[in-house]
Specification:
The chain is an alpha/beta fold. The protein has one domain: Collagenase (Catalytic Domain), CATH 3.40.390. It contains 6 helices and 6 strands, in the order βαβαβααβββαα. It has a 6-stranded mixed beta sheet with strand order 1-3-2-4-6-5. The chain is globular, with a radius of gyration of 19 Å. Keywords: Disulfide bond, Hydrolase, Metal-binding, Metalloprotease, Protease, Signal, Zinc.
């Protein structure tokens, strides 16, 4: 694991898409000397009301239809073998880009807690199945830029152009402070070919395990958004109408879950709403699992879109 330091204008070439850290600028395995966020850190008015209800890059129905059609085409062209992808671990290289304003931001200890949570969630240790997906922390960058910290969406192109590392298989996780009603957002595998420079996941630093964001402080915002990066749709996609989220073992759901209800059943089709699924919108204390069908879908997406040797379109 490497740690890089940058100011405003971005990191050295080490953090660009096709490069590796310069040994002179890397402290391998070292702890970056940044402050740990206080449990009592002040929040903006209304910040405790943040939810998953707004995801800036969420695809609309037409885009989802195109994504689904492309997946079907690729599955057919693979001779059907991709419908039952090989088991075994998928090792995802992970670069975490921490953006700070000089006062607020995330420490390396917070990053490591988040990575541990990712591996616990995707490994089935919190409930549900072991998806076989593992995240390998390859490097951390720290960037001091108040504008980027306060408006990562508005500065997305500049941030990702400067910081992004690797190809389609490398997860770049950007951590800053998002606006009202936004916890995080992600790109989908299908989009990589058209906009590789924008690929990645953005989350609010306050949502990591132990962060100061009430009800969303267990690190499951990143789990949810990375699910999108691996090709999963929301469990409530298309409401009660087929094809739903295109995963057979997540019952249809008319609308997103809020809070943490013991159960709910909003569609006439069999099965109660998957209120504990990481791809719903419940509070963190309610989220526990991925399903076997979601694990298969993530493997299909990895094989067809993100694996370094993925077949050409």
């Amino acid at each position: 694991m490497a740690c890089l330091f940058t100011l405003g204008g971005g990191p050295p070439a080490a953090a660009r898409a096709d490069s590796r850290p310069d040994p002179a600028e890397v402290r391998a395995g070292a702890e970056c000397p940044v402050g740990e966020p206080s449990e009592g850190a002040a929040l903006r008015p209304g910040a405790e009301g943040l939810t998953h209800a707004v995801e800036p890059r969420e695809p609309g129905p037409d885009e989802i239809a195109r994504m689904s059609a492309d997946l079907r085409r690729r599955l057919e062209e693979s001779g059907g073998m991709r419908r039952a992808p090989a088991t075994g671990e998928i090792m995802v290289p992970l670069w975490v880009h921490v953006i700070k304003d000089g006062v607020l931001g995330l420490s390396d200890a917070g990053v490591k807690r988040q990575v541990d949570t990712l591996n616990a969630a995707y490994g089935g240790r919190l409930g549900g199945v072991d998806t076989g997906v593992r995240f390998v922390l390859t490097g951390i960058t720290h960037t001091l830029n108040k504008d980027w910290f306060r408006d990562p969406l508005g500065n997305e192109a500049a941030i990702k152009t400067k910081l992004r590392v690797g190809g389609p298989e490398t997860l770049n996780l950007y951590i800053a402070q998002l606006g009202e009603l936004v916890l995080g957002y992600a790109t989908y595998p299908y989009w990589y070919q058209g906009e590789p420079q924008l690929d990645g996941v953005v989350i609010d630093w306050r949502s990591v395990p132990g962060g100061p964001l009430r009800n969303f402080d267990k690190g499951f915002t990143a789990v949810h958004e990375i699910g999108h990066w691996l090709g999963l749709l929301h469990t409530f996609e298309n409401g009660c109408s087929a094809p739903g989220d295109a995963v057979d073992d997540t019952p249809p759901e008319a609308y997103p879950t809020t809070g943490c209800p013991p159960s709910k059943d909003t569609c006439t089709e069999p099965g109660q709403d998957p209120v504990h699924n990481f791809m719903d919108y419940a509070q963190d204390r309610c989220m526990t699992n991925f399903t076997a069908g979601q694990a298969v879908r993530m493997r299909q997406m990895w094989d067809l879109y993100r694996r370094p040797t993925a077949p050409p379109v």
